[in-house]
Protein backbone atom coordinates (compact mmCIF):
# COMPACT_ATOMS: atom_id res chain seq x y z
CA UNK A 1 0.00 0.00 0.00
CA UNK A 2 1.32 3.45 -0.89
CA UNK A 3 0.57 5.94 1.83
CA UNK A 4 -1.29 8.44 -0.39
CA UNK A 5 -3.73 5.74 -1.57
CA UNK A 6 -6.20 4.01 0.69
CA UNK A 7 -8.58 1.24 -0.36
CA UNK A 8 -11.99 1.22 1.32
CA UNK A 9 -14.21 -1.39 -0.39
CA UNK A 10 -13.54 -4.31 -2.70
CA UNK A 11 -15.52 -6.31 -5.22
CA UNK A 12 -13.70 -8.73 -7.54
CA UNK A 13 -10.45 -6.76 -8.21
CA UNK A 14 -12.44 -3.50 -8.24
CA UNK A 15 -12.19 -1.11 -5.33
CA UNK A 16 -13.34 2.19 -3.94
CA UNK A 17 -10.33 4.13 -2.77
CA UNK A 18 -9.07 7.54 -1.76
CA UNK A 19 -6.18 9.13 -3.58
CA UNK A 20 -4.61 11.97 -1.64
CA UNK A 21 -3.30 14.71 -3.92
CA UNK A 22 -1.32 16.91 -1.53
CA UNK A 23 -0.36 19.68 -3.91
CA UNK A 24 -4.04 20.31 -4.76
CA UNK A 25 -5.02 19.86 -1.11
CA UNK A 26 -7.77 17.40 -2.10
CA UNK A 27 -8.56 13.72 -1.73
CA UNK A 28 -10.08 12.17 -4.83
CA UNK A 29 -12.44 9.23 -4.52
CA UNK A 30 -11.62 6.41 -6.91
CA UNK A 31 -12.64 4.99 -9.31
CA UNK A 32 -12.36 8.48 -10.76
CA UNK A 33 -12.91 9.80 -14.24
CA UNK A 34 -10.61 12.61 -15.38
CA UNK A 35 -12.11 14.57 -18.27
CA UNK A 36 -9.39 15.44 -20.76
CA UNK A 37 -9.18 19.20 -21.21
CA UNK A 38 -7.52 20.41 -24.39
CA UNK A 39 -5.92 23.70 -23.29
CA UNK A 40 -6.62 25.13 -26.76
CA UNK A 41 -10.30 24.08 -27.04
CA UNK A 42 -12.43 24.17 -23.92
CA UNK A 43 -15.46 22.16 -25.11
CA UNK A 44 -16.94 22.39 -21.60
CA UNK A 45 -15.54 24.95 -19.14
CA UNK A 46 -13.47 23.17 -16.44
CA UNK A 47 -15.38 25.04 -13.73
CA UNK A 48 -18.59 23.39 -15.00
CA UNK A 49 -16.88 19.97 -15.08
CA UNK A 50 -16.59 20.36 -11.32
CA UNK A 51 -19.89 22.00 -10.43
CA UNK A 52 -22.27 20.25 -12.85
CA UNK A 53 -20.62 16.90 -13.51
CA UNK A 54 -18.80 16.27 -10.25
CA UNK A 55 -15.30 15.89 -11.72
CA UNK A 56 -12.79 15.93 -8.84
CA UNK A 57 -9.78 15.74 -11.11
CA UNK A 58 -8.99 16.49 -14.72
CA UNK A 59 -6.10 15.90 -17.06
CA UNK A 60 -4.52 18.26 -19.54
CA UNK A 61 -1.40 18.15 -21.66
CA UNK A 62 1.68 20.03 -20.44
CA UNK A 63 3.48 19.37 -23.72
CA UNK A 64 0.81 21.21 -25.71
CA UNK A 65 0.89 24.08 -23.22
CA UNK A 66 4.67 24.27 -23.37
CA UNK A 67 4.79 24.28 -27.16
CA UNK A 68 2.00 26.85 -27.65
CA UNK A 69 3.37 30.41 -27.18
CA UNK A 70 -0.08 31.94 -26.74
CA UNK A 71 -0.89 29.91 -23.62
CA UNK A 72 2.51 28.95 -22.16
CA UNK A 73 3.25 32.28 -20.52
CA UNK A 74 -0.24 32.54 -19.04
CA UNK A 75 -0.01 29.03 -17.61
CA UNK A 76 3.37 29.83 -16.05
CA UNK A 77 2.27 33.24 -14.70
CA UNK A 78 -1.17 32.30 -13.42
CA UNK A 79 -0.64 28.60 -12.67
CA UNK A 80 -2.76 25.84 -14.16
CA UNK A 81 -5.63 26.05 -11.69
CA UNK A 82 -6.18 29.74 -12.33
CA UNK A 83 -5.53 29.36 -16.04
CA UNK A 84 -8.13 26.59 -16.45
CA UNK A 85 -10.46 27.80 -13.71
CA UNK A 86 -10.46 24.51 -11.82
CA UNK A 87 -10.08 23.97 -8.05
CA UNK A 88 -9.77 20.19 -8.03
CA UNK A 89 -6.71 18.09 -8.78
CA UNK A 90 -4.99 18.45 -12.16
CA UNK A 91 -2.94 15.72 -13.77
CA UNK A 92 -0.74 16.60 -16.72
CA UNK A 93 0.47 14.43 -19.54
CA UNK A 94 4.00 14.86 -20.85
CA UNK A 95 3.92 14.56 -24.62
CA UNK A 96 4.38 10.78 -24.67
CA UNK A 97 1.21 10.51 -26.71
CA UNK A 98 2.62 12.98 -29.24
CA UNK A 99 5.84 10.96 -29.22
CA UNK A 100 3.85 7.83 -30.12
CA UNK A 101 1.88 9.69 -32.81
CA UNK A 102 4.66 11.70 -34.47
CA UNK A 103 7.80 9.75 -33.55
CA UNK A 104 9.73 12.63 -31.99
CA UNK A 105 9.33 15.37 -29.39
CA UNK A 106 11.75 18.06 -28.30
CA UNK A 107 11.69 17.69 -24.54
CA UNK A 108 13.35 15.45 -21.95
CA UNK A 109 11.79 13.99 -18.81
CA UNK A 110 13.81 16.35 -16.61
CA UNK A 111 12.62 19.39 -18.61
CA UNK A 112 8.96 18.41 -18.78
CA UNK A 113 8.77 17.44 -15.08
CA UNK A 114 10.27 20.83 -14.21
CA UNK A 115 7.77 22.55 -16.49
CA UNK A 116 4.87 20.64 -14.95
CA UNK A 117 6.03 21.68 -11.48
CA UNK A 118 6.35 25.27 -12.68
CA UNK A 119 2.79 25.50 -13.97
CA UNK A 120 1.40 23.94 -10.80
CA UNK A 121 0.49 20.44 -11.93
CA UNK A 122 -0.64 18.13 -9.11
CA UNK A 123 0.29 14.86 -10.84
CA UNK A 124 3.06 14.99 -13.43
CA UNK A 125 4.13 12.49 -16.09
CA UNK A 126 7.62 11.62 -17.42
CA UNK A 127 8.34 11.06 -21.12
CA UNK A 128 7.74 7.33 -21.35
CA UNK A 129 7.56 5.44 -24.65
CA UNK A 130 4.08 4.08 -25.41
CA UNK A 131 4.90 0.94 -27.39
CA UNK A 132 1.87 0.02 -29.50
CA UNK A 133 0.19 -3.41 -29.34
CA UNK A 134 1.75 -6.23 -31.40
CA UNK A 135 5.14 -4.47 -31.69
CA UNK A 136 7.97 -6.94 -32.17
CA UNK A 137 9.53 -8.19 -28.98
CA UNK A 138 12.91 -6.57 -29.50
CA UNK A 139 11.30 -3.13 -29.92
CA UNK A 140 9.05 -3.63 -26.89
CA UNK A 141 12.08 -4.48 -24.74
CA UNK A 142 14.20 -1.62 -26.07
CA UNK A 143 11.45 0.95 -25.53
CA UNK A 144 10.67 -0.42 -22.07
CA UNK A 145 14.32 0.17 -21.16
CA UNK A 146 13.90 3.81 -22.28
CA UNK A 147 10.72 4.11 -20.19
CA UNK A 148 12.60 2.79 -17.16
CA UNK A 149 15.26 5.47 -17.66
CA UNK A 150 12.49 8.08 -17.83
CA UNK A 151 11.15 6.84 -14.47
CA UNK A 152 14.65 7.09 -12.99
CA UNK A 153 14.96 10.68 -14.32
CA UNK A 154 11.56 11.48 -12.79
CA UNK A 155 12.68 10.07 -9.44
CA UNK A 156 15.70 12.36 -9.48
CA UNK A 157 13.70 15.47 -10.36
CA UNK A 158 12.74 18.09 -7.78
CA UNK A 159 8.99 17.56 -7.41
CA UNK A 160 8.00 18.84 -3.96
CA UNK A 161 4.43 17.79 -3.12
CA UNK A 162 3.62 17.00 -6.74
CA UNK A 163 2.75 13.35 -7.37
CA UNK A 164 4.37 11.68 -10.38
CA UNK A 165 3.06 9.01 -12.72
CA UNK A 166 5.09 5.86 -13.39
CA UNK A 167 3.69 4.51 -16.68
CA UNK A 168 3.72 0.75 -17.22
CA UNK A 169 4.48 -0.27 -20.81
CA UNK A 170 5.34 -3.56 -22.51
CA UNK A 171 3.04 -3.71 -25.56
CA UNK A 172 1.02 -6.95 -25.73
CA UNK A 173 3.67 -9.04 -23.93
CA UNK A 174 2.20 -10.08 -20.59
CA UNK A 175 5.60 -10.92 -19.08
CA UNK A 176 7.01 -7.50 -20.05
CA UNK A 177 3.96 -5.71 -18.62
CA UNK A 178 4.30 -7.65 -15.40
CA UNK A 179 7.99 -6.92 -15.17
CA UNK A 180 7.38 -3.24 -15.99
CA UNK A 181 4.75 -3.16 -13.22
CA UNK A 182 7.17 -4.66 -10.71
CA UNK A 183 9.85 -2.17 -11.70
CA UNK A 184 7.45 0.81 -11.48
CA UNK A 185 6.22 -0.30 -8.05
CA UNK A 186 9.84 -0.38 -6.91
CA UNK A 187 10.35 3.33 -7.69
CA UNK A 188 9.25 6.05 -5.29
CA UNK A 189 6.74 7.36 -7.89
CA UNK A 190 3.08 7.55 -7.05
CA UNK A 191 0.44 6.68 -9.67
CA UNK A 192 0.64 3.88 -12.22
CA UNK A 193 -0.86 4.37 -15.66
CA UNK A 194 -1.13 1.31 -17.88
CA UNK A 195 0.00 2.92 -21.13
CA UNK A 196 -0.50 2.58 -24.87
CA UNK A 197 -4.06 1.32 -24.45
CA UNK A 198 -5.70 3.65 -26.96
CA UNK A 199 -4.99 1.46 -30.03
CA UNK A 200 -6.48 -1.53 -28.20
CA UNK A 201 -9.52 0.40 -27.02
CA UNK A 202 -10.13 2.01 -30.40
CA UNK A 203 -10.25 -1.40 -32.05
CA UNK A 204 -12.49 -2.89 -29.32
CA UNK A 205 -9.77 -5.33 -28.18
CA UNK A 206 -11.17 -5.55 -24.66
CA UNK A 207 -9.79 -9.04 -23.97
CA UNK A 208 -6.26 -7.79 -24.74
CA UNK A 209 -6.93 -4.73 -22.59
CA UNK A 210 -7.89 -6.94 -19.66
CA UNK A 211 -4.78 -9.11 -20.18
CA UNK A 212 -2.52 -6.02 -20.18
CA UNK A 213 -4.15 -4.67 -17.02
CA UNK A 214 -3.98 -7.98 -15.18
CA UNK A 215 -0.32 -8.45 -16.17
CA UNK A 216 0.56 -4.93 -14.99
CA UNK A 217 -1.36 -5.53 -11.74
CA UNK A 218 0.49 -8.77 -11.04
CA UNK A 219 3.72 -6.76 -11.10
CA UNK A 220 2.39 -3.68 -9.32
CA UNK A 221 0.72 -5.52 -6.46
CA UNK A 222 -2.71 -4.71 -5.01
CA UNK A 223 -1.83 -1.46 -3.19
CA UNK A 224 -0.89 0.67 -6.22
CA UNK A 225 -3.37 3.16 -7.73
CA UNK A 226 -3.75 2.19 -11.40
CA UNK A 227 -4.78 4.50 -14.23
CA UNK A 228 -6.07 3.02 -17.48
CA UNK A 229 -4.64 5.67 -19.78
CA UNK A 230 -6.95 6.70 -22.60
CA UNK A 231 -10.02 4.81 -21.39
CA UNK A 232 -13.24 6.72 -20.91
CA UNK A 233 -16.06 5.00 -22.79
CA UNK A 234 -18.91 4.30 -20.35
CA UNK A 235 -19.43 0.85 -21.89
CA UNK A 236 -16.16 -0.51 -20.53
CA UNK A 237 -15.83 1.21 -17.15
CA UNK A 238 -17.37 -1.65 -15.13
CA UNK A 239 -15.08 -4.19 -16.80
CA UNK A 240 -11.95 -2.10 -16.32
CA UNK A 241 -12.79 -1.38 -12.68
CA UNK A 242 -13.44 -5.08 -12.02
CA UNK A 243 -10.00 -5.79 -13.51
CA UNK A 244 -8.46 -3.43 -10.95
CA UNK A 245 -8.25 0.05 -12.52
CA UNK A 246 -8.80 3.13 -10.35
CA UNK A 247 -8.41 6.12 -12.66
CA UNK A 248 -9.74 6.79 -16.14
CA UNK A 249 -9.52 9.73 -18.48
CA UNK A 250 -12.06 10.65 -21.06
CA UNK A 251 -11.20 12.44 -24.25
CA UNK A 252 -13.96 10.35 -25.82
CA UNK A 253 -16.75 12.65 -24.61
CA UNK A 254 -15.40 15.56 -26.68
CA UNK A 255 -13.81 13.67 -29.60
CA UNK A 256 -16.94 11.59 -30.20
CA UNK A 257 -19.16 14.67 -29.95
CA UNK A 258 -17.15 16.28 -32.72
CA UNK A 259 -18.12 13.35 -34.98
CA UNK A 260 -21.79 13.47 -33.98
CA UNK A 261 -21.48 10.38 -31.80
CA UNK A 262 -23.66 9.73 -28.77
CA UNK A 263 -22.27 7.46 -26.04
CA UNK A 264 -24.35 4.93 -24.13
CA UNK A 265 -23.46 2.22 -21.63
CA UNK A 266 -23.90 -0.41 -24.33
CA UNK A 267 -22.11 1.26 -27.21
CA UNK A 268 -21.91 4.30 -29.47
CA UNK A 269 -24.80 5.70 -31.53
CA UNK A 270 -24.82 8.33 -34.26
CA UNK A 271 -26.96 11.38 -33.63
CA UNK A 272 -28.02 11.18 -37.29
CA UNK A 273 -29.63 7.76 -36.68
CA UNK A 274 -31.50 8.49 -33.46
CA UNK A 275 -35.23 9.21 -33.17
CA UNK A 276 -35.27 9.09 -29.35
CA UNK A 277 -32.71 9.65 -26.61
CA UNK A 278 -32.46 6.67 -24.19
CA UNK A 279 -31.26 8.98 -21.42
CA UNK A 280 -32.62 11.52 -18.95
CA UNK A 281 -29.61 13.77 -18.45
CA UNK A 282 -30.32 17.52 -18.64
CA UNK A 283 -29.45 17.56 -22.37
CA UNK A 284 -31.63 14.58 -23.29
CA UNK A 285 -34.48 15.66 -21.01
CA UNK A 286 -34.68 19.05 -22.74
CA UNK A 287 -34.10 17.99 -26.33
CA UNK A 288 -35.05 15.38 -28.92
CA UNK A 289 -32.41 14.18 -31.40
CA UNK A 290 -34.05 16.26 -34.13
CA UNK A 291 -33.59 19.42 -32.00
CA UNK A 292 -29.87 18.75 -31.66
CA UNK A 293 -29.52 18.15 -35.37
CA UNK A 294 -31.13 21.57 -35.97
CA UNK A 295 -28.58 23.60 -33.98
CA UNK A 296 -25.39 25.02 -35.41
CA UNK A 297 -22.41 22.65 -35.31
CA UNK A 298 -20.70 24.15 -32.27
CA UNK A 299 -23.89 24.03 -30.20
CA UNK A 300 -24.65 20.43 -31.27
CA UNK A 301 -21.09 19.42 -30.41
CA UNK A 302 -21.24 21.07 -27.00
CA UNK A 303 -24.58 19.46 -26.10
CA UNK A 304 -23.45 16.04 -27.33
CA UNK A 305 -20.24 16.38 -25.29
CA UNK A 306 -22.33 17.25 -22.22
CA UNK A 307 -24.55 14.19 -22.69
CA UNK A 308 -21.48 12.02 -23.26
CA UNK A 309 -19.95 13.22 -20.03
CA UNK A 310 -23.21 12.88 -18.07
CA UNK A 311 -23.67 9.28 -19.16
CA UNK A 312 -20.03 8.48 -18.32
CA UNK A 313 -20.19 9.95 -14.79
CA UNK A 314 -23.55 8.25 -14.26
CA UNK A 315 -21.99 4.90 -15.14
CA UNK A 316 -19.07 5.61 -12.81
CA UNK A 317 -21.52 6.21 -9.93
CA UNK A 318 -23.32 2.98 -10.86
CA UNK A 319 -19.99 1.13 -10.78
CA UNK A 320 -19.18 2.52 -7.32
CA UNK A 321 -22.61 1.58 -6.00
CA UNK A 322 -22.10 -1.91 -7.46
CA UNK A 323 -18.81 -2.23 -5.57
CA UNK A 324 -20.51 -1.15 -2.35
CA UNK A 325 -23.35 -3.65 -2.82
CA UNK A 326 -21.11 -6.48 -4.06
CA UNK A 327 -22.78 -6.64 -7.48
CA UNK A 328 -19.92 -5.44 -9.70
CA UNK A 329 -19.62 -8.71 -11.62
CA UNK A 330 -23.39 -8.70 -12.27
CA UNK A 331 -22.93 -5.22 -13.76
CA UNK A 332 -19.96 -6.38 -15.87
CA UNK A 333 -22.10 -9.29 -17.03
CA UNK A 334 -24.88 -6.92 -18.17
CA UNK A 335 -22.43 -4.62 -19.96
CA UNK A 336 -20.83 -7.63 -21.67
CA UNK A 337 -24.11 -8.08 -23.58
CA UNK A 338 -23.63 -4.73 -25.33
CA UNK A 339 -21.01 -5.95 -27.76
CA UNK A 340 -19.31 -9.29 -28.52
CA UNK A 341 -15.93 -7.67 -27.86
CA UNK A 342 -17.12 -6.72 -24.37
CA UNK A 343 -18.10 -10.35 -23.83
CA UNK A 344 -14.54 -11.32 -24.81
CA UNK A 345 -13.27 -8.85 -22.23
CA UNK A 346 -15.51 -10.35 -19.53
CA UNK A 347 -14.42 -13.88 -20.44
CA UNK A 348 -10.76 -12.80 -20.33
CA UNK A 349 -11.39 -11.35 -16.87
CA UNK A 350 -12.87 -14.67 -15.72
CA UNK A 351 -9.73 -16.44 -16.95
CA UNK A 352 -8.15 -14.70 -13.95
CA UNK A 353 -10.83 -15.72 -11.43
CA UNK A 354 -8.10 -16.98 -9.09
CA UNK A 355 -6.54 -13.49 -9.00
CA UNK A 356 -9.92 -11.81 -8.52
CA UNK A 357 -10.70 -14.22 -5.69
CA UNK A 358 -7.89 -12.77 -3.55
CA UNK A 359 -9.67 -9.45 -3.14
CA UNK A 360 -13.27 -10.57 -3.63
CA UNK A 361 -15.21 -10.23 -0.35
CA UNK A 362 -16.09 -13.54 1.31
CA UNK A 363 -19.64 -12.42 1.84
CA UNK A 364 -21.96 -10.21 -0.20
CA UNK A 365 -25.70 -9.59 -0.26
CA UNK A 366 -26.57 -11.75 -3.23
CA UNK A 367 -25.24 -13.69 -6.17
CA UNK A 368 -27.45 -13.63 -9.27
CA UNK A 369 -26.76 -16.31 -11.84
CA UNK A 370 -27.85 -14.65 -15.09
CA UNK A 371 -25.44 -16.02 -17.68
CA UNK A 372 -23.30 -19.13 -18.14
CA UNK A 373 -20.20 -16.94 -17.67
CA UNK A 374 -21.24 -16.62 -14.01
CA UNK A 375 -20.28 -20.30 -13.55
CA UNK A 376 -16.64 -19.12 -13.76
CA UNK A 377 -16.92 -16.39 -11.13
CA UNK A 378 -14.42 -16.38 -8.25
CA UNK A 379 -17.14 -17.31 -5.73
CA UNK A 380 -17.63 -20.64 -7.49
CA UNK A 381 -13.90 -21.37 -7.35
CA UNK A 382 -13.75 -20.39 -3.71
CA UNK A 383 -16.60 -22.71 -2.76
CA UNK A 384 -14.88 -25.53 -4.61
CA UNK A 385 -11.63 -24.87 -2.72
CA UNK A 386 -13.58 -24.98 0.52
CA UNK A 387 -15.16 -28.32 -0.42
CA UNK A 388 -11.71 -29.79 -0.88
CA UNK A 389 -11.10 -29.07 2.81
CA UNK A 390 -14.40 -30.47 4.13
CA UNK A 391 -14.62 -33.87 5.80
CA UNK A 392 -17.48 -36.00 4.50
CA UNK A 393 -19.05 -39.03 6.27
CA UNK A 394 -18.75 -42.59 5.03
CA UNK A 395 -22.00 -42.73 3.05
CA UNK A 396 -23.03 -39.40 1.52
CA UNK A 397 -25.97 -38.49 -0.70
CA UNK A 398 -25.63 -35.32 -2.77
CA UNK A 399 -28.91 -34.26 -4.31
CA UNK A 400 -30.53 -31.41 -6.18
CA UNK A 401 -33.81 -32.46 -4.61
CA UNK A 402 -34.94 -32.73 -0.96
CA UNK A 403 -33.58 -35.52 1.23
CA UNK A 404 -35.59 -38.72 0.77
CA UNK A 405 -37.89 -39.39 3.77
CA UNK A 406 -36.33 -42.76 4.37
CA UNK A 407 -32.68 -43.50 3.64
CA UNK A 408 -29.52 -45.21 4.86
CA UNK A 409 -26.99 -42.42 4.19
CA UNK A 410 -24.91 -40.90 6.96
CA UNK A 411 -25.70 -37.45 5.60
CA UNK A 412 -27.60 -35.75 2.78
CA UNK A 413 -26.15 -32.57 1.24
CA UNK A 414 -27.95 -30.36 -1.25
CA UNK A 415 -26.42 -29.61 -4.66
CA UNK A 416 -26.83 -26.23 -6.29
CA UNK A 417 -25.33 -25.56 -9.72
CA UNK A 418 -22.97 -23.81 -10.40
CA UNK A 419 -21.56 -24.23 -6.85
CA UNK A 420 -22.09 -27.95 -6.37
CA UNK A 421 -22.66 -29.71 -3.04
CA UNK A 422 -22.69 -28.10 0.40
CA UNK A 423 -23.39 -29.33 3.92
CA UNK A 424 -26.65 -28.06 5.53
CA UNK A 425 -24.67 -25.75 7.83
CA UNK A 426 -23.59 -23.63 4.84
CA UNK A 427 -27.05 -23.30 3.28
CA UNK A 428 -27.66 -19.77 4.59
CA UNK A 429 -24.17 -18.47 3.81
CA UNK A 430 -22.88 -16.61 0.76
CA UNK A 431 -22.67 -17.62 -2.07
CA UNK A 432 -25.07 -20.54 -1.51
CA UNK A 433 -27.88 -18.06 -0.95
CA UNK A 434 -27.52 -17.30 -4.69
CA UNK A 435 -30.55 -16.77 -6.88
CA UNK A 436 -30.25 -19.24 -9.75
CA UNK A 437 -32.71 -19.97 -12.56
CA UNK A 438 -34.80 -23.12 -12.30
CA UNK A 439 -33.76 -24.04 -15.84
CA UNK A 440 -30.07 -24.45 -15.25
CA UNK A 441 -27.51 -24.62 -18.08
CA UNK A 442 -24.62 -26.86 -19.03
CA UNK A 443 -21.96 -24.52 -17.71
CA UNK A 444 -23.53 -24.48 -14.23
CA UNK A 445 -23.84 -28.29 -14.26
CA UNK A 446 -20.21 -28.72 -15.33
CA UNK A 447 -19.04 -26.34 -12.59
CA UNK A 448 -21.16 -28.22 -10.02
CA UNK A 449 -19.75 -31.56 -11.25
CA UNK A 450 -16.21 -30.23 -10.76
CA UNK A 451 -17.11 -29.41 -7.18
CA UNK A 452 -18.37 -32.98 -6.67
CA UNK A 453 -15.00 -34.13 -8.05
CA UNK A 454 -13.15 -31.92 -5.55
CA UNK A 455 -15.21 -33.19 -2.62
CA UNK A 456 -14.80 -36.83 -3.65
CA UNK A 457 -11.05 -36.42 -4.12
CA UNK A 458 -10.69 -34.92 -0.65
CA UNK A 459 -12.65 -37.83 0.85
CA UNK A 460 -11.38 -40.96 -0.88
CA UNK A 461 -13.13 -43.29 1.57
CA UNK A 462 -16.57 -41.73 1.21
CA UNK A 463 -19.18 -43.55 -0.89
CA UNK A 464 -20.78 -40.70 -2.86
CA UNK A 465 -24.15 -40.87 -4.57
CA UNK A 466 -25.29 -37.92 -6.69
CA UNK A 467 -28.96 -37.26 -7.46
CA UNK A 468 -28.98 -34.82 -10.37
CA UNK A 469 -31.70 -33.14 -12.38
CA UNK A 470 -30.92 -34.52 -15.85
CA UNK A 471 -27.37 -33.13 -16.09
CA UNK A 472 -25.70 -32.96 -19.47
CA UNK A 473 -23.20 -35.61 -20.59
CA UNK A 474 -20.37 -33.11 -20.36
CA UNK A 475 -21.01 -32.66 -16.63
CA UNK A 476 -21.56 -36.36 -15.89
CA UNK A 477 -18.40 -37.32 -17.80
CA UNK A 478 -16.32 -35.34 -15.30
CA UNK A 479 -17.34 -37.51 -12.38
CA UNK A 480 -15.07 -40.36 -11.28
CA UNK A 481 -16.52 -43.87 -11.57
CA UNK A 482 -16.81 -44.23 -7.83
CA UNK A 483 -19.50 -41.51 -7.70
CA UNK A 484 -22.84 -43.21 -8.27
CA UNK A 485 -25.38 -41.13 -10.14
CA UNK A 486 -29.16 -41.13 -10.25
CA UNK A 487 -31.18 -38.99 -12.60
CA UNK A 488 -33.92 -37.51 -10.41
CA UNK A 489 -36.23 -37.02 -13.39
CA UNK A 490 -36.31 -40.65 -14.41
CA UNK A 491 -36.45 -41.66 -10.73
CA UNK A 492 -39.70 -39.76 -10.11
ZN1 LIG B 1 -28.25 12.28 -22.08
UniProtKB/TrEMBL annotation:
A Pfam family per the record: TGT
**HAMAP family attached to this UniProt entry:** TgtA_arch
UniProt record similarity statement = Belongs to the archaeosine tRNA-ribosyltransferase family.
Primary gene name: tgtA
Q: In which pathway does it act?
A: tRNA modification; archaeosine-tRNA biosynthesis
Q: Where is the tRNA-guanine(15) transglycosylase-like domain?
A: 13-340
Residues where Zn(2+) binds: 279, 281, 284
Domain of life, per lineage: Archaea
Species of origin reads: Halorubrum trapanicum
Q: What does this protein do?
A: Exchanges the guanine residue with 7-cyano-7-deazaguanine (preQ0) at position 15 in the dihydrouridine loop (D-loop) of archaeal tRNAs.
Cofactor binding note of this UniProt entry:
Binds 1 zinc ion per subunit.
Query: What reaction does this catalyse?
Result: guanosine(15) in tRNA + 7-cyano-7-carbaguanine = 7-cyano-7-carbaguanosine(15) in tRNA + guanine
Which BP terms in the Gene Ontology apply to this protein?
tRNA wobble guanine modification
Single GO MF descriptor: zinc ion binding
Q: Which UniProt keywords apply?
A: Glycosyltransferase, Metal-binding, Transferase, tRNA processing, Zinc
Its required cofactor(s), as named, are: Zn(2+)
Q: What is this protein called?
A: tRNA-guanine(15) transglycosylase
For this record, an example GO cellular component is: cytoplasm
**EC number(s) recorded for this UniProt protein:** 2.4.2.48
Task: State where substrate binds.
Answer: 128, 196
Residues annotated as catalytic:
93 (nucleophile)
Amino acid sequence: MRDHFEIRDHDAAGRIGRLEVPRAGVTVETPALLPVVNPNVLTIEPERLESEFGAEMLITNSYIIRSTDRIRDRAVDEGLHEFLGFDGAIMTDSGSFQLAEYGDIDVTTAEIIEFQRQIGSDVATPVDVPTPPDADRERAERELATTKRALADAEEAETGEMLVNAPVQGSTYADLREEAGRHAAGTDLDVFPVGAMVPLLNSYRYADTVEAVRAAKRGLGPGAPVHLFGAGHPMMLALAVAAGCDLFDSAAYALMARDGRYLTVSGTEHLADLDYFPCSCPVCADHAPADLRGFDDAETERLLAEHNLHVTFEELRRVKEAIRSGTLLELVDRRARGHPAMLDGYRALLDHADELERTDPGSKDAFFYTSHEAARRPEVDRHRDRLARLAAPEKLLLTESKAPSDHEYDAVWRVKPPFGPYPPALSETYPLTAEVPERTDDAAQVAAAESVVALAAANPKTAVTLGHDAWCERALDRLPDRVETENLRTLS
